[in-house]
Amino acid sequence: MKDQIILAQQDTNAIIQELLEDGSDPHALYIIEHHVSSQDFDKLEKIAVEAYKLGYEATDPDEDVDDAGNVVIGFDIIAESPLNAELINAQIAEILTLTVQFGVNYDGWGTYFEDGSDDDFDEVELMETLH
């Protein structure tokens, strides 16, 4: 799991850098989508419940077919956060712990470009994003 965390943290830095280079607002709140998947719906349901207990939201599951023809179910564990590597990496560590516990896949995270049209977050909101 430690290797997964290191790789995910490297991805975090790259994603943040790319967003900022593209002009995304460094002061906006971002919807962070942590992608998880499995062939076992029951395991995904359990991780969704545990993620909710930790303060995350979950999207509805979607089915897809992988390259080998297997049906894979996935959903996103959602958090709202500033574009801060330390906070996002803490989320990754929490979610990776759950994925290992329930035997599902962590497929990375993503977010959307923010142009700064939303209100800036304040220090109270920042503290609420810490899990």
Automatic annotation (TrEMBL):
It is found in: Cytoplasm. One of its GO terms (cellular component) is cytoplasm. Residues 10-111 form the Regulator of ribonuclease activity B domain. One of its GO terms (molecular function) is endoribonuclease inhibitor activity. InterPro entries: RraB, RraB-like_sf, RraB_dom. Keywords: Cytoplasm. Interacts with the C-terminal region of Rne. Globally modulates RNA abundance by binding to RNase E (Rne) and regulating its endonucleolytic activity. Can modulate Rne action in a substrate-dependent manner by altering the composition of the degradosome. Belongs to the RraB family. This is Regulator of ribonuclease activity B. It comes from Gilliamella bombicola.
